[in-house]
Amino acid sequence: MKSDSKIYIAGHRGLVGSAIIKNLRERGYQNLLTRTHAELDLTDQRAVRDFFAKEQPEYVFLAAAKVGGILANSTYRADFIYENLQIQNNVIHESYKSGVKKLLFLGSSCIYPKEALQPMKEEYLLTSPLEYTNEPYAIAKIAGMKMCESYNLQYETNFISVMPTNLYGPNDNFDLETSHVLPALVRKMHEAKKRGDASVVIWGSGAPRREFLYSEDMADACVFIMERIDFKDLIQDKKEIRNTHINIGTGEDVTIRELALIIKQVVGYEGELVFDPSKPDGTMKKLLDVNRLREMGWRHRIELEEGIKKVYEWFREKECLNELSLTSNPFNGGCGHHGTEKSKEDRRT
Predict the structure, then answer these.
(1) Cα–Cα distance, 174 to 160 (Å, whole number)
(2) Contact indicator for 27, 223 with CB cutoff of 8 Å
């Protein structure tokens, strides 16, 4: 990419999309193309076709998606598979038709089997059943990754898929019905501290282990890959080309209990943490093998406690400015992954 290359960031107000915008600007890229949901509905095939035909972007970051935690994934299964498939199909296909030079597609670590060996290597994809609670979302993401791979093989495109671990950072979703565990715990403990609550109830046993990556580190990895890595660099077996995606993470994990204790300390909450084992734990361990990316020369910079401090500072600042809309309406947008825009298509974690 050159400093004046036309770069489209789909989901630019989301958790990762906003961080990618920030990273690109810091690196001197000037010709950045964005659209809000009101301006472009990525589930609308004709609208996406017209957009690509008119704008002709050279590079695409596909960071737009509908995402959520265990509750949202379990409740809105049809929405998760339908909307994500629509977004991916439209953006990837029109990128091919308009001659995009390179596209980066963001998947999710939930694409790996529930009982996958740990840490999870890229080649573990599709080796056994998925975690049931987020199966529709995972299948959509697998389809997007295979779509990129298949277009590369048939049409000689240069579409790359990356699989991030659990992400957190500025512009995250703090809605307790739809958010992921880290922002949900930040909000719960912050509000419990303000009310003086004696305890905070946390879903599950606290035993599952999770890996967390700060969104600005994720964005840095994405731009690093777009600048340096091509699809041909990821082919290992010329007879059966598969598993060409790249894991992005820290290679380190903590239990949910350990995570809660860190957040409790950062927030300054002095009450008791009560774990509710009647609620689902989800997959017990999800740790990515990030050796492929490390061998390419990239490693994360921000450790978990430092990242949580940054997120809490951002959360408190936005709350003070009354820019957070923390309602329980599942997909109202709120402060979601896209700041204050009420959008469905660009929720990304």
Answers:
(1) 30
(2) yes
Q: Measured between alpha carbons, how far is 315 from 273 in angstroms, rounded to an integer?
A: 21
Quick: pLDDT tens for 152-167.
999 999 999 999 999 9
Distances in whole angstroms, Cα of residue 152 to Cα of each of 66, 75, 129: 25, 35, 26
Rounded to whole angstroms, the Cα distance separating 192 from 178 reads 19
Task: Give the length of the chain.
Answer: 349
Token reading at 102: 């390179």
Angle, helix 135-155 to helix 77-97, in steps of 10 degrees: 10
Instruction: Quote the DSSP letter at residue 130.
Output: P
Q: Provide the 3-class DSSP secondary structure of residue 52.
A: helix
- Predicted local distance difference test score (pLDDT) of residue 67: 82
pLDDT at 323: 63
Q: Find, among 47, 140, 139, 149, the residue nearest to 94 by Cα.
A: 47
Residue 137 is a catalytic residue = yes
Strands 209-210, 254-255: pairing kind: antiparallel
**Cα atoms found within 13 Å of the Cα of residue 180, Cβ hemisphere only:** 23
Considering the entire predicted model, what is its pTM? 0.88
Rounded Cα gap, residues 188 and 278, in angstroms: 19
Catalytic residue among 29, 76, 96, 137: 137
